[in-house]
Every structure is written in C-alpha cells, then in structure tokens.
Amino acid sequence: MNPIHGHAETPSHHGHHEQSSHVEHAAATTAKSWQLDVKTSQPLVKGEQTELRIHLRDEEGRSITSAELARMHEEKLHLLVVDETLSDYHHLHPVEASHGNFAVNFAPRAGGRYLVFADVTDRATETQRYLRAEVQVSGPRPSPDHIVKHESVVEGYRFVLSVPHGISVASGGHAVVQVSDSNGKPVRNLEPLMGAFAHGVGFSSDLAAVLHVHPHGPEPQLKAERAGPEIGFHLNPDRRGFHRLYVQVHIDGRDLFAPFGVEVEP
What we know:
Immunoglobulin-like; mainly beta
C-alpha cells in the first residue's frame, strides 16, 4: 500500500479554507475534524488506471460508513480530484467495498501532485464537509495556466461563460454558461447528471479552497427531462485571486468538463 498525506477540514457549504497541517496516515486523526485517508495498491502513473482506496474517520478516529452519510445529488461521496496546475480534473464516486472502506478507479492525465477533496454530508447533523488529501503521480507535470478564460471548446461543443457583475468575496457572483454545438446551434438536450442539469466545481490557485455548486432553477425529476442552452450558477468564493472553474454536463450519454479561468475580487 502507498500511504498518501492527508488533511482534515472544517465544515463548509461553499468555498473552504484549509485549516490543518500535514499529517501522516498512520496518525490521521484531528481533534475537531473529520479526516480523509487515501491509499493506492501501486504507485500512480500518468495515463495508467489505479484504484484509490478511501477511508473517512470522525473526530475520534472512528471509521465512517456510507450509512452515516447523507445522499446528496444521488451520491453519498463526491470525490473532486485536480492536479496542482488545475489542468486535470476528475469527479469520482467511490463505493463502499467493505465496512468504512471505499474504492474507485482513477486514471490521471498529468504528473505531479494531485489534490483530493471529499465532499460529504453528515447524515446526523446535515453538516456538509470538505475533506482533503494529496496524492503524487509519476510523469511530466504541466505548466500552470492561470489565465482568465471565459470560453471553452470540448469535443466540438462550445461553452461561453459570462459574469455580468463580476465575482467577489464580498458578494459572490452570478455566472451564466451558454452551450452550443459545432454548428453554433444552441444545445437544448442537457441530460440529468447526479440530480441536476450541470455541476460547477472551482478551485483556487493556491489549492486551498474548493467550490461545488449546482444550477439555478428546478432540478430534474425524470431522466427524460432536458435543459439548455443556458445554465446559471451563483458562486460564493471565500478568497480572492484566480480560480479554475469546471462546468460538467451530460450530453448524449457522455460527461463533458468545460474549464474556465475566473478572477475573484476582494
């Protein structure tokens, strides 16, 4: 087994500041926080699939099972994984293989350090928590690209982001994404995805804050429902500076991740 450094994090509903120090998994408990442990059966290598083994612990170091987690957007555990340059992002859903032991396959597309954020909600208290760990991947590390970018093309689909009044720590910001196909035609067949028509996940450039938001408006109740071409989000970042924002949608049975770069004002 390959132990990975882990962090415990305090509850948050939107952005989150990292609060604790680096700890080894052998002593991965924190007095007032839940803890995320990540291990692998073999070293992680760029382009190769490896199983991540996930273990959650409470304030007393006790294992947390899926029965103690609330189901949020169809899943008990959302794993948000991004490399340190913010260029490779994955949204994964580990499943409980045995009591308190979760697992999921992961194929990194870059080398270097990856941040692993577990988005979980305590069923007993309805408290949402972001827990953090780190993994190391062998292979070339991309160059950081912290450039403001409001347009993205993914598999022929064009995503355009607008923030009419900007984004700030003081008041947040309203973001709208327009989706069109390769012919410029508005896309109106966004499919339900984890109980929503899109998921927005953002990371600060210092790797210490994460956002996980869902679109405005009613959520789909039936798998046959469709939406588009416009998706609206409200962002509440808790720190200024550059953020990478990924908007995930489901079209024709495929997950598409559109990356953007936004600047958050004070």
